[in-house]
Prior knowledge:
102 residues, four-stranded parallel β-sheet, globular
Amino acid sequence: MATNANTTRGAIVLVHGGFVDGSGWEGVYQNLKKDGYRASIVQNPTTSLADDVAATKRVIAEQKGPVILVGHSYGGVVITEAGNDPSVEGLVYITRLCPRPG
């Protein structure tokens, strides 16, 4: 029986930093999807930490199976707070993005 990669891999939830929005994750999102991962981008309202954590928890609740939270900059604070959800299996903190050689 063939297994669909989308059903066997956990979900990756991407959380943006302050002063930006979720569109900054678009390239990463597309690469993850191309590689068979289930990925979502949280569009935080950036009105308060509590509101951003609530928005992230809503996206976590929509996922099936284990979740890896990825946060950039201020998004790291958000994933730290939202990461206590029982379906979250890991947190990844991105402090900066580096260009590829060439």
